[in-house]
Amino acid sequence: MIRSFVLAGAIAMIAGIAHAEEPIVGNWKTAAGDTAVIASCGGSYCVTLKTGKYAGRKIGTLAGTGGSYAGEITDPAAEKTYSGAGKVSGNSLRMQGCVMKILCKSQTWTRL
């Protein structure tokens, strides 16, 4: 009985490690003060605004692992899409959007 309980606990622990979410998944406060949710979608990560003037709008798709991600980011105010990247460091997410990988702007988001 005790043996099977320990085995079941070990299996649950391993399964939890195998299915751990990427560091980018979660709710983030943007530089503008809105809340963005980043969630797994179709093999990548979708960035959707949850609050603010553009609430409900998908503003990006990123792919990657281990805290470094790349894809596309959309500026909802300008309605322009740029090549983008995100880098997670603790509770900070540095988002960057670039035109032709030369002209880049970045901002830091904070995990909520």
Number of strands: 8
Low-confidence stretches: 1-18
Largest sheet: 8 strands, antiparallel, barrel
Q: Looking at the structure, what is the overall shape? A: globular
The spatial strand order of the largest sheet comes to: 1-2-3-4-5-6-7-8
Helix content: 10-25%
> End-to-end span in angstroms?
42 Å
Q: What do we call the CATH topology?
A: Lipocalin
Instruction: Specify the CATH architecture.
Output: Beta Barrel
Structural class: alpha+beta
Order of helices and strands: HEEEEEEEE
**Which CATH top level class fits?**
Mainly Beta
Q: Count the helices. How many?
A: 1
Rg over alpha carbons: 17 Å
Average pLDDT figure:
87
Please indicate the count of domains.
1
| Strand residues, percent | over 45%
Question: How would you characterize the overall build of this protein?
Answer:
With 112 residues, the chain is α+β, with helices and mostly antiparallel strands. It is built from one helix and eight strands. It has an eight-stranded antiparallel β-barrel with strand order 1-2-3-4-5-6-7-8. A hairpin with a 2-residue loop joins strand 2 and strand 3. The relative contact order is 0.16. The N terminus is likely disordered.
